[in-house]
Amino acid sequence: MRVFNKNLRLQDVTIMYFTALAALMVILVASYQAPTNAVEVSILKSSPPSPLPPLPMPFRVPLDPLGDLQLAWNISYANQEVYMELRVKELKHGVVLGMSDRGELTNADLVVLWDSGSKSYFGDAWSDSEGHVSLDSQQDYELIEARQKPDGFYLLFKRPFSTCDPRDYLIEEGTVHVIYGLLDQPLPSLEQLNLSRIHTGVQRILMLRPDTPSPTLPPDVETLDVVAPNVIIPNQETTYWCFIQELPENMPKNHIVMYESVITPGNEAIVHHIEVFECSPDMPNVPHYSGSCDDKMKPGKLNFCRHVLAAWAMGAEAFYYPPDAGLPMGGPSSSRFLRLEVHYHNPLLIAGRRDSSGIRLHYTPSLRRYDAGIMELGLVYTPIMAIPPKQHSFYLSGYCTSKCTKTALPPGGIYIFASQLHTHLAGRGVRTVLVRGGKELEVVQEDKHFSTHYQTIRVLHKMANVLPGDVLITKCTFNTEDRNKPTVGGFGIMEEMCVNYVHYYPRTKLELCKSHVDPEYLQKYFSFMNRFHGNDRCVCGEVGVTEQYSQLHWDPFAGEVLDSLFNTAPISMHCNQSSARLFPGDWEKQPVPEVTSILEKPRYPCEGKPVTPTV
């Protein structure tokens, strides 16, 4: 066998040899050389450019169940940047922090600190559809400081809201799903990292917050703690604990002007969210109860404690009412009974931990000019509204019509200053928009990355003035790709809701402004779809709506027709007073509000215009 051609020259052999050697070197360098786009952390640690003044970090949240990782941040709207500080209690060989659409490890925007075995590096990275990590060619995370302190290792860095990099996450209003991971061994190359092979987790936060200063509380303010009575947190992953607390007898009317969370020290990473509800004033007595909210033996009257007074979620700040308004508490028109609901998230199944967390209400007997109120917008809780199975994005809209606002609102209208969005497990996004004269005027509140696991009252950047004759449209996005049957509206967690609880002043008698499609038109839909699929005998009217939805043959056409029905058919309006009775008038078979002009989508710096808060 002849290895070399007899005409092959020494020069050719030499070229082939060095070509092979160069190829081998490229492979070795790609695996082990210092990444060209990353920052060598050891250089920054040993010789910082100048002493850094302390940077205030007003927002902070524990990332993991033990609180070993903590994220703090601040916002510069002037520079359109977020400053972040990550504390790692015990750093081994690196840490990963990132953002993705819904907390997925795939297609995520990442910032990574890793140890190659001899040096440490910091860099902007991304993960592909299988969780493999690569260093980003465009480095948008800027490292400011990396330093070991007595309580852990600190990383201080910043990033623009919008980087115009298609692999980067756009930081905008609403929920941000933060993912994190810890590296237990050195990485000669970042490309060797796959997020599915390391310990990871997800935390949800509101990253962009209003930049307004906190109001000063009145000198005569008093406090009332509505807290869990030293309960033992069950050693299970999820617990909703309910507790009934009674207000002092004959308590006069006061105004709640601020509330804040009270978290038992050591439980900061377990107490996920807290809500306080006022019971119905129509019930003179509510049985005392402390136990699981899901207990089938709990008193039935707890179901009539639904009027939200306060809501807090992990990472949220204290909530302040506007200077001219306060939420009424006490007095003859209020209930003496409050229901506390605490959600414990205990994935490590920690046993024997006691908790007395809850909400501290700050109230004043010096009544402010206006009573604040809470109004429900969106869809009525009814199975008449439904989402077909196997839907990536299905939209449902609830209307507060011009006829209702013209009937119920005062001449100067109302001012919405905060809201709490709500869906169940299939909800992916919620948006409430104010329409005047057929034109979308402003977005009241929007969350494109909404999660039912993170619901809190959100202060608007700018109050929305709703006038008589205006329309409020609340539109929800749902995903049912993992479901084989239709999802109907209702109170069950596997049923759905589309609601925005708006906080406003001055308080009116209008407590609920919601809609659903006209039932007769829905029956026409069932009849048409059954005939279309060759079923001559329709059971329309013989069984309930939920069963009729279940019996349909759900193909793409059935979903498209239902979507068209919901967007065009007449609606039934629930324009309800606080007594639960409708305002006088005809509210059946009302036309869907017409929108002739929609708002332009916000543009970002790479498109020539800076971002400003939209709500």
TrEMBL record:
Cofactor: Cu(2+)
Pathway: Catecholamine biosynthesis; (R)-noradrenaline biosynthesis; (R)-noradrenaline from dopamine: step 1/1
The protein's name: Dopamine beta-hydroxylase
Topology in the lipid bilayer: Single-pass type II membrane protein
Gene Ontology biological process terms, A to Z: dopamine catabolic process; norepinephrine biosynthetic process; octopamine biosynthetic process
Subunit organization: Homotetramer; composed of two disulfide-linked dimers.
Catalytic reaction(s) noted: dopamine + 2 L-ascorbate + O2 = (R)-noradrenaline + 2 monodehydro-L-ascorbate radical + H2O
Gene Ontology annotations for the cellular component aspect, listed alphabetically: chromaffin granule lumen; chromaffin granule membrane; extracellular space
EC number(s) per entry: 1.14.17.1
InterPro entries: Cu2_ascorb_mOase-like_C, Cu2_ascorb_mOase_N, Cu2_ascorb_mOase_N_sf, Cu2_monoox_C, DBH-like, DOH_DOMON, DOMON_domain, PHM/PNGase_F_dom_sf
Organism classification: Eukaryota, Metazoa, Chordata, Craniata, Vertebrata
Keyword line: Catecholamine biosynthesis, Copper, Cytoplasmic vesicle, Disulfide bond, Glycoprotein, Membrane, Metal-binding, Monooxygenase, Oxidoreductase, Signal-anchor, Transmembrane, Transmembrane helix, Vitamin C
Pfam families hit by this protein: Cu2_monoox_C, Cu2_monooxygen, DOMON
Function according to Swiss-Prot or TrEMBL: Catalyzes the hydroxylation of dopamine to noradrenaline (also known as norepinephrine), and is thus vital for regulation of these neurotransmitters.
Intracellular or extracellular location(s): Cytoplasmic vesicle, Secretory vesicle, Chromaffin granule lumen; Cytoplasmic vesicle, Secretory vesicle, Chromaffin granule membrane
GO terms of molecular function: copper ion binding; dopamine beta-monooxygenase activity; L-ascorbic acid binding
Regions annotated as coiled coil: none
Assigned protein family: Belongs to the copper type II ascorbate-dependent monooxygenase family.
Every DOMON domain range: 67-183
Domain of life of the source: Eukaryota
